[in-house]
UniProtKB/TrEMBL annotation:
<protein>
    <recommendedName>
        <fullName>Sodium channel regulatory subunit beta-3</fullName>
    </recommendedName>
</protein>
<keyword id="KW-0732">Signal</keyword>
<dbReference type="GO" id="GO:0086091">
    <property type="term" value="P:regulation of heart rate by cardiac conduction"/>
</dbReference>
<dbReference type="InterPro" id="IPR013106">
    <property type="entry name" value="Ig_V-set"/>
</dbReference>
<keyword id="KW-0813">Transport</keyword>
<keyword id="KW-0851">Voltage-gated channel</keyword>
<dbReference type="GO" id="GO:0044325">
    <property type="term" value="F:transmembrane transporter binding"/>
</dbReference>
<dbReference type="GO" id="GO:0005272">
    <property type="term" value="F:sodium channel activity"/>
</dbReference>
<keyword id="KW-0325">Glycoprotein</keyword>
<keyword id="KW-0915">Sodium</keyword>
<keyword id="KW-0472">Membrane</keyword>
<keyword id="KW-0407">Ion channel</keyword>
<dbReference type="InterPro" id="IPR027098">
    <property type="entry name" value="Na_channel_b1/b3"/>
</dbReference>
<dbReference type="InterPro" id="IPR036179">
    <property type="entry name" value="Ig-like_dom_sf"/>
</dbReference>
<feature type="transmembrane region" description="Helical">
    <location>
        <begin position="154"/>
        <end position="175"/>
    </location>
</feature>
<dbReference type="GO" id="GO:0086002">
    <property type="term" value="P:cardiac muscle cell action potential involved in contraction"/>
</dbReference>
<dbReference type="GO" id="GO:0001518">
    <property type="term" value="C:voltage-gated sodium channel complex"/>
</dbReference>
Amino acid sequence: MQSALVGPSLCHGACVEVDSDTEAVANQGFKLGCISCKMRGEVPATAAVNWYFKASDDDEFSHLYSYEDLIGDVIDPRFYERLDWNGSKQTKDLQDGSIYILNVTYNDTGTYQCRFNRVLMYPNYEFQTNASKTIIINVVPRLTRGMASIFSEVMMYVSIIGLQFWLVVEMVYCYRKIAAAGEEALRESAAEYLAIASESKDNCAGVQVAE
């Protein structure tokens, strides 16, 4: 049962680094995402995650939060009882160092840094690596749509309209082609009929002369 709990570190589950959201809504919860994947997923490791915060009116970063050996510690008093660990669970081999802020305030606007201190444990030696990510958070009264989302939606509608226009043009082209083919067939049929009629007339005239 215990091995199932620590499965991500033993089974080498897939890890994908995804950027954190950067727009938080006041008086709501917000996840500060921070993922640092191991370059060698099959190598066992331990890691510690430390978060730092610099408010919009601060000059330096202050130590915000620390997570190591399955224990989290809120260090910045501005976040007491408002911050919780939201990263890798029940393993010391951390790859997700995300945290969750409860009841976001406008004072939470600023720059956050997430720092991974990882030790890769090879058979004969240990190798220490560091990784960091910087996230700039803006607190707003309500969630607004980003330009990327608006642009994607506009391009979707443009694509749909363009496809419909292309289908109309293709239908008109096919209709004209079919109509032209039909007219050509009628002309050929008429010419063939006239040729047969003319030939029959000539045959009749020849018969009369012979008589």
